[in-house]
Specification:
The protein is α+β, with helices and mostly antiparallel strands and 285 residues long. The chain is built from 4 helices and 15 strands. The chain has 2 domains: 6-134, STM4215-like (2-Layer Sandwich); 146-284, Phage tail protein-like (STM4215-like, 2-Layer Sandwich), CATH 3.30.2000. The radius of gyration is 22 Å and the shape is globular.
Length: 285
């Protein structure tokens, strides 16, 4: 059952898929690829949407949604009958169902073609899951500068996430020697401000609203699974989601599965997940 965390959402969906075709090997994000290369398998990953939030009275609702991508692989020259049967099984079992706190939409089946020594057919299933929390208080105007906002966001990440979870963080334009040589998990953290627009306006006071995003690029050693990574994602989610802190209002945290990546400063090979934290702040003048 989904408890509001990304980790429980991902694991709930994985368990449901494994029960649909129990005889096949499933390969999840950043797992060691130890499968038999002569046998069919399914690679399952996610394409998450930006998280969406709404306030209904005293309730703050966050929707996490996206597509489940089930890539069915069968050996070349074995035909596609078995793969299409498996695609049909997934589509019929998932279509317009509501199970364990996750709603599944209408799957689509696509013949994606050759991938290495396999023929691949892809099933894409839309999904969403809603979670509710107490509504955050409204942000009041402040006299915050861009520098102060960046510092405050980095400080919150440092005290609420980095210090609590104990991994290394590379901040903007900092010394890359913090990247661990043993290839343990680390995070690149960046803050970016965007447009400034006039919010409220009166004869005496103007309010200017500036929006932006904080980005946490989580780098885990390749082929070590994603359990530790998803714990970090949920730690960031808990620290920022819907929070009002020093005049900065944070929105719902979004997740993006990037895949294998090489960090130039370290030369190591990693599996990357990106977390985006939207925010805005207001300045009165």
């Amino acid at each position: 059952m989904v408890d509001g965390s990304y980790k429980s959402l991902v694991n709930t969906i994985r368990v449901r898929h494994e029960t649909l075709i129990p005889g096949l090997r499933y390969l999840f994000d950043n797992e060691p690829d130890d499968r038999d290369e002569t046998l069919p398998y399914i690679r399952l990953t996610f394409d998450f949407d930006d998280a969406d939030d709404r306030v209904f009275g005293k309730t703050y609702r966050v929707r996490k949604s996206g597509e489940i991508i089930s890539k069915i692989h069968i050996p070349l020259e074995d035909g596609d009958e078995a793969a299409l049967q498996e695609a049909d099984s997934i589509a019929s079992a998932m279509r317009q169902t509501d199970a364990d706190g996750v709603f599944y939409g209408n799957p689509s089946v696509r013949a994606a073609g050759r991938e290495g020594a396999f023929w691949m057919i892809e099933v894409r299933t839309p999904f969403h899951s809603d979670f509710t929390y107490p509504a955050p208080a409204r942000v009041g105007g402040s006299t915050a500068t861009i520098e102060a906002v960046h510092d405050r966001i980095r400080s919150r990440f440092g005290t609420q996430v980095e210090d609590v979870m104990g991994f290394k963080v590379l901040y903007d334009n900092a010394d890359p020697s913090v990247i661990p040589v043993d290839q343990s998990l680390w995070v690149r953290f960046a803050v970016s401000t965007g447009l400034t627009q006039v919010g409220q306006q009166s004869t005496a006071v103007k309010t200017y609203r500036t929006t932006g995003h904080a980005f946490a690029m989580i780098m885990a050693k390749a082929e070590t699974g994603d359990s530790e990574t998803l714990d970090v994602v949920d730690g960031i989610d808990s620290a920022f989601r819907g929070v009002n802190d020093s005049g900065i209002r944070y929105g719902p945290v979004s997740l993006d599965v990037i895949g294998r990546a090489t960090a130039g400063e370290s030369g190591g090979t990693w599996f990357q997940h990106n977390v985006a934290v939207p925010f805005y702040f207001e300045v009165n003048s």
